[in-house]
């Protein structure tokens, strides 16, 4: 593609933006108006028309997937690879920077990334170590506090506790957490940005190097940057760098995680000479979809205000389906997907979007039963599954003995007789001597502090890790992974669990071996040991590459992770009050506005057909609900909607659909929703049933004991 062609498939304001003179540019425009397309063309323009080197360009995208697509698209346009360009997420880019400057940033060379689950465990331990009551000081709350401070660029040292116990304890936990991370040589997600930002501030020479290099900085989805991310960009741009930011205030959906819509306006104040381009033509959706989305978002106040129009025909009306319950909802969805496939459509052209991850299970089941391949983005991702994290923790400890989170996770998995008392002693010693758990263990063994049995068990564990650590690089990563799974005893451990769950865990571990076999280091990671590159990949990309990349799959994801994407067919499920908008948002105008933006994001993902589904009754989080239809549905002009079936039919169809399934009353003698009594656990409600005969199981939500799966043959349940 030569220079003139770069501008061919663009409208006038888009061309203006792509070919803008070097300087600061802000693009403010609604969904599907070509913002991302303009950003991609701009990069090609910088290289071709402005004769800049790809190495001068740094582009920030919202997901790793978007980054890969962007790179591919530009290479396709230019006809050659653009290795030197940096494109990635904020976290990915910050991570890359810290890998190159670990020493200057005060990190160990093999520092590992702590994902939010690891982080929570660590915080839990700290709270216990401080003898605080976990019920009164929930670890999740402390995690939220810590991450919130980091998003604002604040360390414990920057903060001052007030008089109240809340701020005092939170600050103390934050401080202890920072020290524990330091000791373990691990960084959490927020730390990646915070630390690279600090690195630049304390090392002007390093900053100058990057400022000289990255004269062009482009940011997609700017409306969802938080304080530290914006600060990071500003520092990098300095006096000479040029910023090209694109965003849509109506699509800001991460306020709950510290994103600041205001950054869009702040940008204008911080860079008064920036030119602003507005795009108003939508190229993605049909007239009906666009009109409906515009009508919904119009209910928000305090918008920067823009209208979108399309040259497209109205297209099909929006399909509104009133399901009987969540299974009926899933059954209808599967039926429509199959219709689409029968017409020659591809599965990957279909997206199912939900508000909460917990909604995916029923839909997954329905798709599975009909043998429709699907892929889940986000949610319980492959790399977040317990057994995978166990194996990864072994690998992490193999790579870095100071990784306390990994040590703690697997020291007694599978059980090897290292008890809580030993661990408490070790932790205390580690804190006092400011050493890792590993080093503390070594000291303990040398000084023969532990009783013989505990000492032997601990010593066996250390020997195991040492023996698994390769001495040279003659062993491939997947051989090492297989070895770890077998020698650690994890395989035998999980094989003892004969249920499907246990089987699934083994399959997952085998899939991990596949993942390590297929893993290829990125160009910029050549210096890094393959194992470390893989561990970083596992932490950063969790879930994004799940399933077989090449298989034609229906795409399942939360509304949040659908941002920036588009699909010919979109199903939005669970359009119900209490779920979407969520319960807590109903009486908080700010949160409600954010939910509405999320609805706008969801609707504008659809190109041709949009389905909105809601149910009369739903089991979620172990409770039965009888929700009202979402208020967002009533904000859509009726002439844009087509009610798919009448409510009465629906209820009947829903009932037969349920009765015809294996999960029905005939198999177990119980039905969902039934009240039961258990001798030990007390009263509860059946929330699911499966299997039959002696294998029949019921899932019961007990008032006191929480939810449990019980085998009917042994449960002695009484109906109430
Ligand atoms: N001038 C154009 N001519 C034809 N198609 C276009 C044009 N501009 C954009 N498109 C197409 O419209 C769709 C939406 O574009 P894009 O994804 O860049 O929009 P966006 O503004 O980034 O949307 P979002 O806000 O959802 O991120 C894409 O399929 C894109 O290829
Ligand atoms: Mg976009």
Automatic annotation (TrEMBL):
One Pfam match: UvrD-helicase
Chain sites annotated for binding ATP: 29-36
Domain UvrD-like helicase C-terminal: from-to ranges: 287-564
Domain UvrD-like helicase ATP-binding: 8-286
UniProt catalytic activity: Couples ATP hydrolysis with the unwinding of duplex DNA by translocating in the 3'-5' direction; ATP + H2O = ADP + phosphate + H(+)
EC number, UniProt record: 5.6.2.4
GO terms for biological process, alphabetical: recombinational repair
Family matches, as CDD domains: DEXQc_UvrD, SF1_C_UvrD
InterPro entries: DExx_box_DNA_helicase_dom_sf, DNA_helicase_UvrD-like_C, DNA_helicase_UvrD/REP, P-loop_NTPase, UvrD-like_ATP-bd
Keywords: ATP-binding, DNA damage, DNA repair, DNA-binding, Helicase, Hydrolase, Isomerase, Nucleotide-binding
GO cellular component entries: cytosol; DNA helicase complex
Single GO MF annotation: DNA binding
UniProt cross-references to NCBIfam families, sorted A to Z: PRK11773.1
Family from the record: Belongs to the helicase family. UvrD subfamily.
Designated name of the protein: DNA 3'-5' helicase
Source organism of the structure: Methylophaga muralis
The gene coding this protein: uvrD
């Amino acid at each position: 593609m030569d220079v003139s062609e770069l501008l061919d498939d663009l409208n006038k304001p888009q061309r203006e933006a792509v070919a803008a003179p070097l300087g600061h540019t802000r693009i403010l425009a609604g969904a599907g108006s070509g913002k991302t397309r303009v950003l991609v063309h701009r990069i090609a323009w910088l290289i071709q028309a402005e004769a800049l080197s790809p190495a001068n360009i740094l582009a920030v995208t919202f997901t790793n997937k978007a980054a890969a697509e962007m790179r591919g698209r530009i290479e396709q346009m230019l006809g050659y690879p653009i290795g030197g360009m940096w494109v990635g997420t904020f976290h990915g880019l910050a991570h890359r920077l810290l890998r190159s400057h670990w020493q200057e940033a005060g990190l160990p060379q093999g520092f590992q990334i702590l994902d939010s689950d690891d982080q929570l465990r660590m915080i839990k331990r700290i709270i216990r170590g401080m003898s605080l009551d976990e019920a009164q000081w929930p670890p999740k709350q402390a995690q939220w506090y810590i991450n919130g401070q980091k998003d604002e660029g604040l360390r414990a040292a920057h903060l001052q506790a007030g008089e109240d116990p809340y701020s005092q304890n939170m600050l103390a936990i934050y401080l202890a957490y920072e020290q524990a991370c330091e000791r373990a040589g691990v960084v959490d997600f927020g730390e990646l940005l915070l630390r690279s930002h600090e690195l630049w501030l304390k090392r002007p020479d390093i900053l100058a190097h990057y400022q000289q290099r990255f004269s062009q900085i482009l940011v997609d989805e700017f409306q969802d940057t938080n304080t530290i991310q914006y600060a990071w960009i500003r520092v990098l741009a300095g006096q000479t760098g040029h910023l090209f930011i694109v965003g849509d205030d109506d699509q800001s959906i991460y306020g709950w995680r510290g994103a600041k819509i205001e950054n869009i306006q702040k940008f204008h104040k911080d860079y008064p000479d920036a030119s602003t381009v507005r795009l108003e033509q939508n190229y993605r959706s049909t007239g009906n979809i666009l009109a409906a989305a515009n009508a919904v978002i119009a209910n928000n106040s305090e918008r920067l205000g823009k209208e979108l129009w399309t040259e497209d025909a109205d297209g099909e009306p929006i399909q509104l389906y009133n399901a009987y319950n969540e299974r009926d909802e899933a059954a209808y969805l599967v039926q429509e997907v199959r219709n689409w496939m029968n017409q020659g459509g591809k599965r990957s052209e279909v997206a199912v979007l939900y508000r909460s991850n917990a909604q995916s299970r029923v839909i997954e089941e329905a798709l599975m039963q009909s043998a429709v391949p699907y892929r889940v983005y986000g949610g319980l991702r492959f790399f977040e599954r317990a057994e995978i994290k166990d194996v990864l923790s072994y690998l992490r400890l193999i790579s870095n003995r100071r990784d306390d989170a990994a040590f703690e996770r697997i020291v007694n998995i599978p059980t090897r007789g290292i008890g809580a008392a030993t661990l408490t002693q070790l932790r205390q010693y580690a804190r006092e001597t400011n050493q890792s758990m590993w080093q503390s263990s070594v000291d303990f063994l040398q000084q023969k502090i532990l009783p013989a049995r505990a000492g032997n068990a601990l010593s066996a564990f250390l020997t195991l890790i040492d023996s698994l650590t390769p001495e040279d690089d003659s062993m491939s990563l997947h051989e090492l992974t297989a070895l770890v799974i077998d020698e650690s005893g994890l395989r035998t451990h999980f094989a003892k669990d004969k249920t499907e769950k246990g089987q699934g865990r083994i399959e997952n571990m085998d899939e991990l071996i596949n993942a390590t076999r297929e893993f290829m280091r990125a160009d910029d990671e050549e210096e890094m040991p393959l194992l470390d590159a893989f561990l970083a990949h596992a932490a950063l990309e969790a879930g994004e590459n799940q399933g077989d990349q090449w298989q034609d799959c229906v795409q399942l994801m939360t509304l949040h992770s659908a941002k920036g994407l588009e699909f010919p067919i979109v199903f939005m499920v669970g359009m119900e009050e209490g779920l979407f908008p969520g319960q807590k948002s109903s009486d908080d105008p700010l949160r409600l506005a954010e939910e509405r933006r999320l609805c706008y994001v969801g609707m504008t993902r659809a190109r041709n057909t949009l389905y909105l589904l809601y149910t009369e009754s739903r089991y979620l989080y172990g409770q039965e609900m009888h929700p009202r239809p979402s208020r967002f549905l009533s904000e859509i002009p009726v002439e844009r909607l087509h009610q798919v079936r009448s409510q009465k039919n629906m209820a009947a169809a829903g009932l037969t659909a349920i009765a015809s399934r294996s999960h029905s009353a005939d198999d177990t003698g119980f039905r969902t929703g039934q009240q039961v009594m258990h001798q030990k656990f007390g009263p509860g409600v059946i929330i699911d049933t499966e299997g039959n005969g002696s294998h029949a199981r019921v899932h019961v939500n007990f008032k006191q004991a929480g939810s449990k799966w019980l085998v009917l043959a042994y449960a002695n349940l009484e109906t109430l």
